[in-house]
Amino acid sequence: MLRLDQATVTYPNGLTALQPTSLAFRPGEFTVLLGASGAGKSTLLRCLNGLVTPTAGDVIADGVGSIVHDRRALRRHRRRTGMVFQQHHLIGRLTALDNVLTGRLAAHGFVRSLFPLPRADRRLALAALDRVGLLDRALDRADRLSGGQQQRVGIARAMAQEPEIVLADEPVASLDPGSAERVLSDLHRICREDGIAAIVSLHQVELARRFADRVIALAHGRVVHDGRPGEVGPRV
Ligand code: ADP
Ligand code: ADP
């Protein structure tokens, strides 16, 4: 559904963060990217949503085309792609619900006021919060929530876009192990239930083993392992 075709990224400073890489991501598959800091995980994820433009090669979304060479294709692709970041990018003084709604509005590609809230959007946003166990916190300010709860709001925000693909760059890097596990298990369950493909970078091998259908390990901008989590070697 989404693939890299010999995609290569050389940053302006001359560093090649992604060596020519071809990978195909399948619908509904939960893929974990592993690798040391600087291995190129973030660069690869950013290629998949057009935040980084490959200096060579291509990124192709099924039914849409090249997101590298066609701005319209990129816009359509982004509309069906949910993003979750390490720093959850919530607006602290807005409620959890309004934060989820901002994602929904952004996904629809037009600017409109948050108020009055369209009723269908509001229902979807509340349902998304319910799925991460935060319905009772919907009207609390985001900055009153714990780090793990904020990241679950980030997941609800991505899910309220009704995506086909979720890209998550180190979504649990700043969380304690218990919260990290909860965040990943919510993300994993929702993706499974809705048939959403997820591509998630992590640095905890244990979490990859538990949740991934597929593990791709990167080192120095190259894929050094691509397979089932049970096969991930002790070097990771
Ligand atoms: P460095 O030379 O920087 O130590 P490595 O080649 O040891 O780099 O690998 C960096 C990262 O890539 C590791 O932390 C691991 O996550 C991943 N990796 C390397 N080799 C493998 C492998 N055979 N199987 C799975 N993952 C690997
Ligand atoms: P990871 O997510 O695995 O930590 P990154 O994709 O962030 O890896 O980085 C891969 C390499 O590219 C690193 O050496 C990093 O320092 C470098 N890098 C990342 N972004 C830039 C940039 N904008 N300009 C130059 N080098 C960058």
Automatic annotation (TrEMBL):
GO terms for MF:
ATP binding
Pfam families xrefs: ABC_tran (PF00005)
Q: Does the keyword Membrane apply?
A: yes
The residues forming a coiled coil are none
Output the CDD domains linked to this UniProt entry: ABC_PhnC_transporter
The ABC transporter domain covers which part of the protein? 2-236
Q: Which UniProt keywords apply?
A: ATP-binding, Cell membrane, Membrane, Nucleotide-binding, Translocase, Transport
Answer yes or no on keyword Nucleotide-binding. Answer: yes
- Give the PROSITE patterns listed for this entry: ABC_TRANSPORTER_1, ABC_TRANSPORTER_2
Q: Which NCBIfam families match?
A: ABC_phnC
Q: Which family does it belong to?
A: Belongs to the ABC transporter superfamily.
Q: What is this protein called?
A: Phosphonate ABC transporter ATP-binding protein
